[in-house]
Write a structure and sequence with these properties.
Number of domains: 3
Radius of gyration: 20 Å
Oligomer: single chain
Order of helices and strands: HHEHHEEHHEHHEEHHHHHHHH
Distance between the termini: 37 Å
Helix content: 55-70%
Strand order of the largest sheet: 1-3-2
Shape: globular
CATH topology of the largest domain: Four Helix Bundle (Hemerythrin (Met), subunit A)
Strand content: 5-15%
Length: 331
């Protein structure tokens, strides 16, 4: 029987219009060749702003989103967006070969924590260009552990935290597609044309929206350089702001919501159906994140922040953002 993830991804690929295909390819090619996302003004000038905004409005933020950094706005693809480009099938195959390699290395040595570009290039017989392509795919797909270093020439990545869940077999493309369609499931965007939806589209205050966008990007960046504590603190602030925003949006916030801790805010969101019962789980570090800012406090002073704690914090924010988007639905 055909894997439904295979048919769903193929359907998405076939469903792209000519304009949509050209735009996702242009965004990917710019990132692939330059290592940075394409500025909005560049893409708008090439295709016409109305065409780009119409494309974003139809595809949604789980494929293309808009981000801001140092006053410049950029368009970026999610990993699902990358798989919809002309290089999507090649990217699937390359990442599948890498995951097979890491899985087999881990089976031989369960204490394995890192793999480097040189050993991967030798094992998979990769050229320098293909190695850099793989580097970008690993980073965008989040199939890497903490402390990874994505240099321009050589790179080192931590073994994926779920490496022991990679299934047996030589062809892991179905596994990749299932992962992608679970965590980057396409949605009908609620934002009208002219306002592409991104992670914090539901935040009404523009200043807060920009701040959360920057904090969320920074949380992911400091994770890459082993900044476990900074990652948890940033994730805690983002999660707190998101939960408060969605609880207050319709005037149904619990009493004294702004004085409650993260666990109470999560419980309130679950009780209102904003988050599912199996949603974000708070580890000890994230639960006590305000105390981490003040090491002298008892709650934060004796708490060791590990890679696993930082990984859990990132996952809690990702799950929360996905479920909030699904709860709000089209408008």
């Amino acid at each position: 029987m055909m894997d439904t993830s295979v048919t769903e991804l193929e359907s998405l690929r076939r469903g792209l219009t000519e304009d949509q295909g050209d735009i996702v390819n242009a965004i990917w090619e710019h990132y692939r060749d330059r290592g940075e996302w394409i500025p909005c003004r560049v893409l708008d000038q090439r295709f016409g702003k109305a065409t780009v905004l119409a494309c974003l409005g139809l595809l949604g933020a789980n494929i293309i989103c808009r981000m801001e950094d140092d006053g410049e706005e950029y368009y970026r693809l999610t990993f699902l967006g990358v798989l919809l480009t002309d290089q999507g099938e090649e990217s699937e195959q390359l990442l599948a070969r890498y995951l097979e390699y890491v899985r087999n290395r881990y089976a031989e040595n369960p204490r394995l924590e890192w793999v480097g570009s040189r050993e991967v290039e030798a094992a998979l017989n990769l050229t320098a260009d293909r190695s850099q392509h793989l580097r970008q795919l690993i980073r965008l797909s989040h199939w890497w552990g903490g402390g990874s270093g994505f240099g321009d020439q050589e790179w080192t990545v931590g073994v994926p935290i779920d490496v022991d869940e990679i299934p047996p077999g030589a062809d892991l493309r179905s596994y990749i597609r299932q992962h992608v369609l679970t965590y980057f499931r396409p949605q009908t965007p609620s934002a009208p044309p002219g306002k592409p939806r991104h992670e914090f589209w539901f935040i009404e205050d523009p200043a807060l929206q920009r701040q959360l966008t920057m904090d969320w990007r920074e949380a992911q960046d400091v994770y890459e350089v082993r900044g476990w504590k900074s990652c948890v603190v940033l994730c805690g602030g983002v999660l707190e702001a998101v939960l408060l925003a969605v609880s207050e949006r319709d005037g149904q916030a619990p009493r004294n919501a702004r004085g409650q801790d993260l666990a109470a805010l999560l419980d309130a969101a679950r009780s209102r159906g904003i988050l599912g019962a199996g949603s974000a789980s708070l580890g000890p570090a994230l639960r006590e994140f305000p105390a981490l800012i003040h090491p002298g406090l008892a709650a934060g002073g004796g708490l060791e922040v590990t890679r696993d704690q930082a990984e859990a914090a990132l996952m809690a924010v990702r799950m929360c953002l996905r479920q909030v988007s699904a709860w709000r639905g089209p408008s």
